[in-house]
Amino acid sequence: MIDILLYAFIAGLLLVIPAGPLGSIILWQRMAYYGDTLAHSALLGVALGLLLDTHVELTVLGVCVLLALLLGPLHRISGNSLDSLLGIAAHTSLALGLVAVSMQSGAVDLNAYLFGDILAVQRSDLILLTGISVLCCGLMLWRWNALVAIATHRDLAQVEGLPVARLEILQMVLMALLVAVGMKIVGVLLISALLIIPAATAGRLSRTPEQVALGAIGCGCIAVVGGLFSAWQLDTPAGPSIVVFAAALFFLLLPFGKRTKT
Amino acid sequence: MSALVTLDKVTFHASERQILDEISLSLKAGEITSLIGPNGAGKTTLVNLILGLNQPTSGKVKRQRGLRIGYMPQKLTLNAGLPLSVDRFLALTGAHRQARKQSLTMAGASQLINHSMHGLSGGETQRVLLARALLAKPQLLVLDEPAQGVDISGEEELYARISELRNQLGCAVLVVSHDLHWVMAQTDSVICLNRHICCHGHPQSISNDPGYLTLFGEQKTPVLAPYVHEHDHDHSMHGDVVEGGCQHD
């Protein structure tokens, strides 16, 4: 039991550490829905992975990156507004994924993909998770200033000579990476909650962008501890419990936000 | 004088709609150009083409190699969850603290260095954006509607500062404004835009204009100057060119 909890705890931390800064950037760019769409499309990746009998993480990553890269051109060509396009992409890929998974021979535990199964995390999963976590954090540290500059004013950043288009692709790939590994932990339906809620909580209490990122990591860690404790003591589902704790923390700290919306 | 940016018969379409039609102009080193036109004339689109943020549908935009552009956008909509001090906002360019202080002083905003970006007034935000534009050590300063959201005395102060900066730095300046009748007095050339270049000229000399004196009183150096349009065509309701004599000023 202690083994399972320890692995789950480490897996949770390895997920919320890169999710803190990445979620902050996504929130600043008002791209919360973008993360949701990528996460929903992950189920299509799961189906593809089962079909090809290969690592599910790889196909999820592939589908997410492909969708992220296709959305831009699709937006330009179709002339639809981005949010309607995101809505279409999110639910089409989710539905397609559900249909494709149902056609697999043999029983597939859909719940594990939809809501995650953090208590089933293995030692091999932890190695992959550590790699992805370190890679994401490293990439964000390397380009942090530029990513904040783009979130502040995209055109200004571009005139000042930042490779905005390439950095936006980097951001998409980071998001796809986190979805691919986070799916196992909190599931495709809740992974974007772990990006958004801790960052939103920290954003109200911070004075610098770095404080938001670190604060989001802190809030994420508290949510993981709380969620796992509740799963252990009250036998609640671990993934959703983590999200519930993150949300509870947000509401609990709501009165303490100094700044009003300007 | 060498041209920093040259536009040659530049046309721009956005989803079938023509926004700009055969624009040719050049921005010369050290000169102040005022770009004026009514709302919807395509001023911001033209600025984006000059900055390289958009590519023209046809025609050519030539920028001098290695041209340093300082850009002051029309507005800044910061996400409420992104806390930034003025100093941190300037540090996003990668500039050192000394350079940040210096450009804030030049923009007349040195006292704002530790303020939050979220609490600034319209005029203060404008000055901070100007300071950020100056960090590029610009050869060309592009100001998109800098006078928007500030009152008339704020506008005068801003224009006085810009012409002083031009003299100090020797940079060219492109100022966009939707005021059709008053432009910066130090303007070397005025471009009036309404999807195409309507007219092109110089502001009136102030000394003999009684209208200016009654409006602003006698000043040593006037900041605004009237601009008299010389159109040789007319526009229909849809902005299309109608042949015939000039009916509007």
TrEMBL record, chain A:
Pfam families: ABC-3 (PF00950). The keyword ATP-binding does not apply. GO terms for cellular component: ATP-binding cassette (ABC) transporter complex. GO terms for biological process: response to zinc ion; transmembrane transport; zinc ion transport. Involved in the high-affinity zinc uptake transport system. It is a multi-pass membrane protein. It comes from the Bacteria. Coiled coil: none annotated. This is High-affinity zinc uptake system membrane protein ZnuB. Keywords: Cell membrane, Ion transport, Membrane, Transmembrane, Transmembrane helix, Transport, Zinc, Zinc transport. It comes from Litorivivens lipolytica. The chain crosses the membrane at residues 33-51, 58-74, 94-114, 126-144, 172-200, 212-232, 238-256. Belongs to the ABC-3 integral membrane protein family. It is found in: Cell membrane.
UniProtKB/TrEMBL annotation, chain B:
One of its GO terms (molecular function) is ATP binding. SUPFAM superfamilies: P-loop containing nucleoside triphosphate hydrolases. InterPro entries: AAA+_ATPase (IPR003593), ABC_transporter-like_ATP-bd (IPR003439), Metal_Ion_Import_ABC (IPR050153), P-loop_NTPase (IPR027417). Coiled coil: none annotated. The keyword Cell membrane applies. One of its GO terms (biological process) is response to zinc ion. Keywords: ATP-binding, Cell membrane, Hydrolase, Ion transport, Membrane, Nucleotide-binding, Translocase, Transport, Zinc, Zinc transport. Residues 5-219 form the ABC transporter domain. The keyword Cell division does not apply. It comes from the Bacteria. It holds the Pfam family ABC_tran. It is an enzyme of class 3 (hydrolase). Its EC number is 3.6.3.-. This is Zinc transport system ATP-binding protein. It comes from Litorivivens lipolytica. The lineage of its organism: Bacteria, Pseudomonadati, Pseudomonadota, Gammaproteobacteria, Litorivivens.
